[in-house]
Amino acid sequence: MLGSNVPAHPGRGGLATLFRYADEWHCECAQTYITLSRRWRVTDLLPEEISGFRSAWRKSQVKQVIAHVPLLVNLASPTSDTWQKSKDRLSAELARARTLGIEFLVLHPGYYRNLNKTAAIKRIVGTLNSVLENVNDAKATILLETTAGQGTAIGSRFEEIAYILENVRNKESVGVCFDTCHVFAAGYEVRGYRGYEKIWKEFDSIVGLDKLRAIHLNDSKTELGSRVDRHALIGKGKLGLQFFHALMRDPRFRDTPKVLEIPAQDGEKIRQQLDHLRKLQATSQSLSEPKGISAQLRLHEMSSNSSNC
Ligand SMILES: [Zn+2]
């Protein structure tokens, strides 16, 4: 299932506009913010906004809507005020997702700032447990997004995500969103058909493919292991096309929402990128990688082989 990040206007009664864009771009899934992403305050939705959203969805070709929790939210925050606001906001996002019939809520696990990283990961588990306990009728699944590890971001190692999943009490309410750019920037070699197979084996053995609920499709402007989160257009970054080709054709992920995450204001680019991805999906023969990437892959393989000895 292929789709994109789509603009909506939650503060101005314009949540349903997401379906207009999504349909224009032939998206089967769409991701958006369902609250104002830069403000803490969440005002109640009017009944007509809720019914407008639901009826626009019924008329649209979009099968799955994913809400992205604003980046303000930091469940690991060492500041009690921010931590409390983050906890409240996550509860509000869950409640809103339920009202709108949205199943998935993507969340960056958190930032440890001046805390010890292990303590921060435990704090995230505790916060998730307490939020999920208090909204026991929540229907949405929280998807922990793999991160690039920029600054003090938690979630750049599969083990960190796995630890959270293993330690939350309400296991059915938490899953994973795999971001292709972030995983590469975090230092996982995903390039080439071989890198592609290897990364999913590793993910499966540490996190479990059964936990994967969504994929963010992004190329990376920065190098392998840079820990810098800069999305690039597919085919214009450092990942190369073999990875995206394999991903688009992988039958295991046919029904998994795959969301393109380029700045939403550029509709024409989004349309072109989605077409590009559909073409990759329809291409049965193997692709060759551009010279630069092949050389880097060879170098990487040589160095990982020698370090295995
Ligand atoms: Zn992402």
- What is the tally of helical segments? 10
Beta-strand share of residues: 5-15%
CA gyration radius, whole angstroms: 19 Å
CATH architecture level-2 label: Alpha-Beta Barrel
Unreliable stretches: none
Q: What's the β-strand tally?
A: 12
Main sheet record: 8 strands, parallel, barrel
Q: In whole angstroms, how far apart are the ends?
A: 42 Å
* Count of domain modules: 1
Give the C-level CATH assignment: Alpha Beta
The H-level CATH homologous superfamily, spelled out, is Divalent-metal-dependent TIM barrel enzymes
Physical arrangement of strands within the biggest beta sheet: 1-2-3-4-6-8-9-12
User: What structural class is derived from the secondary structure elements?
Assistant: alpha/beta
Please tell me what the overall shape is: globular
User: Would you list the SSEs in sequence order as H and E?
Assistant: EHEHEHEEHEEHEHHEEEHEHH
Give every kind of bound small molecule, once each.
Answer: zinc ion
Q: Would you tell me which CATH topology applies?
A: TIM Barrel
- Average pLDDT reading: 92
Give the fraction of residues assigned to helices.
40-55%
List keywords for this structure.
single chain; 309 residues; alpha/beta; TIM Barrel; 8-stranded parallel β-barrel; two-stranded antiparallel sheet; globular; binds zinc ion
